[in-house]
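W.,

You were right to be curious about this one. When I first looked at the sequence I had no strong expectations either way, so I just let the prediction run and decided to look at it fresh. Below is the sequence, 152 residues in total, followed by the output.
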Amino acid sequence: MEKVKKEIQIIQKVSKATAARKEPIVKYYGTGGRKNAVARVWIKPGSGQIIVNKKLLDEYFARLAHKTNILKPFVATKTSGQFDLFCTVKGGGCSGQAGAISHGLARALSEASEDYRLVLRKGKFLTRDSRVVERKKYGRRKARKLTQFSKR
């Protein structure tokens, strides 16, 4: 009996300690898409750390254009360095993935505050870019490229 009572007391102490330690962490989520890439983006108040597929932004994207494209929603809302960004992205290439992260980030920021939503809407960050690769047609070399014309 004494062992059971001691175990119950230990469990109660541990549960009280974990309950006191856990503060509600505010996270905002947004899903973004571009071409064939899909990004799931979470932001929370922090120091401005950006992690893409468990790598830092500089490690994942080599080109400066992709990095600036991702950070555009932060610049538009003037929240650079105020949020930590964590995202997973699948499909597509580098440009598509960067666009998808930017779109997901804009959606997450609009969820965070209604004021950001107006700025992001004016900057066209919340609109999904619907352009995708055109399919190849039969009788042609590519989607639009024809074979060379021969007059004789």
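Here's what jumped out at me. The chain has five helices and five strands. And, maybe more interesting for your project: The first helix runs from residue 2 to 21.

Coffee later to discuss?

I.
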